[in-house]
Amino acid sequence: MKNVYTVKQVNSYIKNMFTQDFMLNRIYVKGEVSNLKYHTSGIYIFH
Fold this sequence. Notes:
The chain is an alpha+beta fold. It has one helix at about 5-20, and strands at about 35-40, 45.
């Protein structure tokens, strides 16, 4: 049986990895956002 996790659980796990690991603690990530759409209701949606 596959384990099912919420997005919050996965984010918390990854955050803890970066916080506790000496090497990961010093990494900065630079990137871009793609597939971001502005909805007429005034919100932004990632596709």
